[in-house]
Design goal:
63% helix; 0% strand; IFN-induced_PKR_regulator
Length: 156
């Protein structure tokens, strides 16, 4: 499941929070009854500084406003922050892991996946023009090792 599909699922849950929340709240009430716990709204006052003080006449409305909606919003915000376009670009470099290069049959596919990564980190690389030939050499060496050939590389 991709990050985008999880994010779209959370956004859909947030848009239909009333339907989803009733099922979750029902399960929580059943679980609480097994332990002799009745749902209740915490005491509220005119000026609350240390916890949420949203208006809610019944426990289900209160907990939906105070816990469920802020939690889903925080999940969506956290995923957006964690998986920004920069981090998605950095993940493109994972195609250079040997297991991934062996799975890919053509070096062109690897280079297509690396294009955004190379464009972003172009100024940080010592010789970005040599990346395609390095990927070809690396791929042929990895495939050669799989069929039993021995490759030696000298680092000068």
């Amino acid at each position: 499941m991709s990050v985008q599909s999880v994010l779209s699922l959370l956004i859909e849950v947030r848009e239909n929070v009333d339907c989803k929340y009733l099922a979750w709240y029902g399960e929580a009430v059943v679980m609480g009854k097994e332990h002799d716990i009745e749902p209740s709204v915490p005491r509220t006052c005119g000026r609350q500084r240390n916890r949420c003080n949203v208006p809610g006449e019944t426990p289900d409305v209160y907990f939906q406003r105070a816990l469920c909606i802020p939690y889903i919003d925080e999940l969506i915000s956290g995923i957006n922050d964690r998986f920004s376009s920069l981090s998605k670009t950095a993940v493109m470099a994972l195609v250079l892991i040997p297991e991934m290069t062996i799975k890919k049959q053509h070096a062109n596919v690897i280079l297509e996946n690396l294009k955004a990564f190379l464009d972003f980190y172009n100024s940080d690389l010592p010789s970005p023009c040599g990346i395609p030939s390095e990927v070809d050499r690396y791929k042929s060496a990895e495939l050669g090792l799989l069929v039993g050939q021995v490759y030696c590389s000298l680092v000068v």
